[in-house]
């Protein structure tokens, strides 16, 4: 096979892996949007916050230590212990649930019945708040996250492809792990929403708020539940991205890419989020590979958005979204 | 007892439909203008100019622009930063290509160029709405910033990739470049601000503004009563981008002088202006000023109190600022979705009835 084609295949494979990560973040958006009609801009920052919290707990940092030091003149530098990854993940999950609860009681409860765009802007405010809070709690420096996921080049694939084509594909173990975890996560979510009582309640709320209320489903509980699940998805996404490129502010910008993914896949569809993520992942990598060198590179910054924009003009509801019907 | 319409008799239709129907408002308006134009230039110094007044004036123009689009026409845009960048780069190209032409003309022209670009990116608004559109404007944000970063023609092939404002004078006074006179720069911007506010205020209370508001309140109903959504939305994008472009041009040429596009006009700038509009008041020209003042003063104040007063490290103060801004956005959306301007409106109502509120 010609080299160029082999490169393209490798790029496509890597794009698929990146797409899985986009899909992971997009999944969190879809969950919240379906259950409460809120377009949660803060999802990306939630992933960042979850990753920061995880690193902070694992390293035994004292929350707000910079603040405490500045206010009381003390000199605290961590508890001096290290928490095992699994326990830290559980603790982070507790934090994310507390966050979900706080968001519902402090913010969303007061905004019920507002226009979607007001809610959207409120989540932008939430994103800012959370960004400041995360940095305030754990410090703004770039952190490495290592929860023991396999990393580095997958030698089996490298050797197998080398023997077959004479060119070894570079595929990161981490990406493969991410793909497997994402697949499991989606399977679990689907099973949860199909076969458990709470999952059915969740789908009922997503379908019709008032009908759900009338059969005795607690909206407040369901919303806290949805935000908690979104927090969990954010945590998984945060771990993956954090392990890949370090826990830092740009994480929330990468997570912004989930927005075009959603627009492509449709806001209300879980399969849409996944297919959209894969399309964007492959699309931007291939575009960068084929067209990028001609126009100066770094096209990954905008390709996803422009693709989604062009796509939307022809199909406003996305690939799998419900048809938008407007009534006066 | 002062704030009354009573006794202020209107004898012509013109007087009846004036912007400030209450005499005290009119007086206050002219008083503020007089102070801004005749008193401030004599006491201004470089610190006040660069830390407070110039950002306030320039952001006020941007906020007015975005307010037309978001507050009056209901189309949320997250691409303000990029449109400011269009204004800045248009101004730069014009300034270097035609050095003999007056800089004021360049700035207005960059406004028109930005209006064109804005209308182009406004086209999808005819098909998509709400947050779909908000995300679509992100495309403008990332694409335009990338374009200005990667295509050397835009920064005249300079080695650093930055654009630097060449030295220009207006009526013999240096406006851009190093060694400017503070009062001249201030007056130059003030003229643009006053003119923009005047145009915006009159556009929004005329036929065009009513069409925008009809589209905002319910687009289908507006279409049925005969508002052309194509024209209304595109004109909102055009007018809005015009002012955003002017503010971007001023931001680059007069305020910063040297610009690196990703840093100066990144997505954070878009949010900053959006926050000004939300906090100041959606659908209010006064609100744009209040919001701009608030968002410019808040960091200065926090910095002075926390870093200067309490001796905190700067990064902590910056994080706290994020939290406060985010919290305030949520607070305003919950308590008063129409922002500071609405508080002012309520105060005025109370004042008119005082001391007999029933």
UniProtKB/TrEMBL annotation, chain A:
<dbReference type="GO" id="GO:0022857">
    <property type="term" value="F:transmembrane transporter activity"/>
</dbReference>
<keyword id="KW-0472">Membrane</keyword>
<keyword id="KW-0029">Amino-acid transport</keyword>
<keyword id="KW-0812">Transmembrane</keyword>
<feature type="transmembrane region" description="Helical">
    <location>
        <begin position="119"/>
        <end position="140"/>
    </location>
</feature>
<feature type="transmembrane region" description="Helical">
    <location>
        <begin position="45"/>
        <end position="64"/>
    </location>
</feature>
<dbReference type="InterPro" id="IPR052157">
    <property type="entry name" value="BCAA_transport_permease"/>
</dbReference>
<keyword id="KW-1133">Transmembrane helix</keyword>
<feature type="transmembrane region" description="Helical">
    <location>
        <begin position="12"/>
        <end position="33"/>
    </location>
</feature>
<dbReference type="InterPro" id="IPR001851">
    <property type="entry name" value="ABC_transp_permease"/>
</dbReference>
<feature type="transmembrane region" description="Helical">
    <location>
        <begin position="217"/>
        <end position="241"/>
    </location>
</feature>
<protein>
    <submittedName>
        <fullName>Amino acid/amide ABC transporter membrane protein 1, HAAT family</fullName>
    </submittedName>
</protein>
<dbReference type="GO" id="GO:0005886">
    <property type="term" value="C:plasma membrane"/>
</dbReference>
<feature type="transmembrane region" description="Helical">
    <location>
        <begin position="289"/>
        <end position="314"/>
    </location>
</feature>
<feature type="transmembrane region" description="Helical">
    <location>
        <begin position="261"/>
        <end position="282"/>
    </location>
</feature>
<keyword id="KW-0813">Transport</keyword>
<dbReference type="GO" id="GO:0006865">
    <property type="term" value="P:amino acid transport"/>
</dbReference>
<comment type="similarity">
    <text>Belongs to the binding-protein-dependent transport system permease family. LivHM subfamily.</text>
</comment>
<dbReference type="Pfam" id="PF02653">
    <property type="entry name" value="BPD_transp_2"/>
</dbReference>
<keyword id="KW-1003">Cell membrane</keyword>
<feature type="transmembrane region" description="Helical">
    <location>
        <begin position="176"/>
        <end position="196"/>
    </location>
</feature>
<feature type="transmembrane region" description="Helical">
    <location>
        <begin position="84"/>
        <end position="107"/>
    </location>
</feature>
Automatic annotation (TrEMBL), chain B:
<feature type="transmembrane region" description="Helical">
    <location>
        <begin position="130"/>
        <end position="148"/>
    </location>
</feature>
<protein>
    <submittedName>
        <fullName>Amino acid/amide ABC transporter membrane protein 2, HAAT family (TC 3.A.1.4.-)</fullName>
    </submittedName>
</protein>
<feature type="transmembrane region" description="Helical">
    <location>
        <begin position="27"/>
        <end position="44"/>
    </location>
</feature>
<feature type="transmembrane region" description="Helical">
    <location>
        <begin position="50"/>
        <end position="69"/>
    </location>
</feature>
<dbReference type="GO" id="GO:0015658">
    <property type="term" value="F:branched-chain amino acid transmembrane transporter activity"/>
</dbReference>
<feature type="transmembrane region" description="Helical">
    <location>
        <begin position="271"/>
        <end position="302"/>
    </location>
</feature>
<keyword id="KW-1133">Transmembrane helix</keyword>
<dbReference type="InterPro" id="IPR001851">
    <property type="entry name" value="ABC_transp_permease"/>
</dbReference>
<dbReference type="GO" id="GO:0005886">
    <property type="term" value="C:plasma membrane"/>
</dbReference>
<keyword id="KW-0812">Transmembrane</keyword>
<feature type="transmembrane region" description="Helical">
    <location>
        <begin position="322"/>
        <end position="344"/>
    </location>
</feature>
<feature type="transmembrane region" description="Helical">
    <location>
        <begin position="183"/>
        <end position="200"/>
    </location>
</feature>
<feature type="transmembrane region" description="Helical">
    <location>
        <begin position="101"/>
        <end position="123"/>
    </location>
</feature>
<dbReference type="InterPro" id="IPR043428">
    <property type="entry name" value="LivM-like"/>
</dbReference>
<dbReference type="Pfam" id="PF02653">
    <property type="entry name" value="BPD_transp_2"/>
</dbReference>
<keyword id="KW-1003">Cell membrane</keyword>
<keyword id="KW-0472">Membrane</keyword>
<feature type="transmembrane region" description="Helical">
    <location>
        <begin position="236"/>
        <end position="259"/>
    </location>
</feature>
<feature type="transmembrane region" description="Helical">
    <location>
        <begin position="76"/>
        <end position="95"/>
    </location>
</feature>
């Amino acid at each position: 096979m010609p080299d160029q084609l082999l490169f393209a295949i490798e790029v496509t494979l890597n794009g698929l892996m990146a797409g899985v990560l986009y899909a992971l973040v997009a999944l969190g958006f879809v969950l919240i949007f379906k259950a409460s009609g809120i377009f949660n801009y803060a999802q990306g920052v939630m992933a960042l916050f979850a990753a920061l919290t995880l690193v902070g707990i694992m390293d035994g940092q004292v929350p707000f230590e910079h603040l405490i030091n500045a206010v009381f003149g003390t000199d605290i530098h961590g508890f001096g212990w290290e928490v095992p990854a699994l326990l830290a993940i559980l603790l982070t999950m507790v934090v994310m649930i507390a966050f979900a609860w706080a968001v519902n009681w402090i913010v969303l409860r007061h905004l019920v019945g507002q226009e979607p765009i007001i809610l959207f802007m409120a989540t932008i405010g939430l994103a800012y708040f959370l960004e400041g809070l995360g940095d305030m709690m754990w410090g703004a420096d770039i952190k490495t996250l290592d929860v023991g996921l396999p990393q580095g080049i997958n030698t089996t694939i490298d050797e197998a492809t080398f023997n077959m084509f004479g060119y070894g594909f570079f595929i990161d173990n981490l990406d493969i792990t991410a793909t497997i975890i994402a697949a499991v996560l989606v399977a679990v979510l689907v099973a949860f929403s199909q076969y458990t009582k709470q999952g059915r309640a969740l789908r009922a709320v997503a379908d019709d708020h008032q009908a759900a209320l009338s059969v005795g489903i607690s909206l407040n509980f369901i919303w806290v539940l949805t935000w908690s699940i979104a927090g969990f998805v954010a945590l998984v996404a945060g771990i993956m991205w954090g392990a890949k490129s370090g826990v830092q502010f740009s994480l929330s910008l990468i997570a912004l890419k989930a927005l075009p993914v959603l627009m492509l896949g449709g806001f209300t569809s879980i399969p849409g989020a996944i297919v959209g993520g894969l399309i964007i992942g492959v699309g931007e990598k291939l575009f960068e590979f084929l067209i990028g060198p001609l126009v100066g590179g770094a096209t990954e910054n905008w390709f996803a958005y422009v693709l989604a924009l062009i796509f939307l003009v022809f199909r406003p509801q996305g690939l799998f979204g419900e048809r938008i019907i407007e009534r006066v | 007892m002062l704030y009354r319409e009573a006794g202020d008799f209107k004898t012509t239709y013109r007087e009846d439909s004036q912007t400030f129907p209450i005499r005290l408002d009119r007086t206050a308006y002219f008083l503020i203008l007089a102070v801004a134009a005749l008193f401030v230039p004599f006491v201004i110094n470089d610190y006040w100019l660069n830390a407070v007044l110039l950002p306030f004036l320039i952001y006020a123009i941007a906020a007015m622009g975005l307010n037309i689009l978001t507050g009056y026409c209901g189309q949320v845009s997250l691409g303000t930063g990029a449109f400011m960048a269009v204004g800045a780069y248009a101004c730069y190209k014009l300034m270097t290509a035609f050095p003999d032409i007056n800089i004021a003309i360049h700035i207005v022209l960059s406004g028109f160029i930005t209006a064109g670009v804005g209308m182009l990116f406004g086209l999808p608004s005819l098909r998509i709405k709400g947050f779909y559109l908000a995300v679509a404007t992100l495309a403008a944000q990332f694409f335009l910033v990338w374009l200005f970063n990667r295509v050397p023609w835009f920064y005249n092939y300079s080695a650093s990739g930055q654009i630097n404002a060449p030295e220009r004078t207006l009526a013999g006074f240096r406006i851009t470049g190093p060694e400017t006179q503070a009062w001249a720069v201030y007056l130059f911007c003030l003229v643009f601000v006053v003119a923009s506010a005047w145009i915006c205020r009159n556009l929004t209370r005329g036929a065009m503004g009513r069409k925008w508001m009809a589209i905002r309140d319910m687009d289908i109903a507006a279409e049925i009563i005969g508002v052309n959504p194509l024209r209304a939305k595109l004109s909102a994008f055009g007018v809005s981008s015009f002012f955003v472009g002017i503010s971007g041009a001023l931001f680059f040429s007069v305020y910063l002088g040297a610009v690196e596009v990703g840093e100066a006009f990144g997505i954070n700038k878009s949010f900053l202006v959006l926050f000004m509009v939300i906090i100041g008041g959606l659908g209010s020209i006064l609100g744009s000023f209040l919001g701009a003042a608030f968002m410019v003063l808040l960091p200065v104040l926090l910095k002075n109190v926390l870093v200067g007063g309490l001796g905190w490290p700067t990064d902590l103060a910056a994080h706290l600022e994020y939290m406060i801004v985010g919290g305030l956005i949520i607070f305003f959306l919950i308590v008063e979705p129409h922002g500071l301007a609405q508080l002012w409106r309520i105060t005025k109502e109370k004042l008119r009835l005082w001391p007999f509120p029933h």
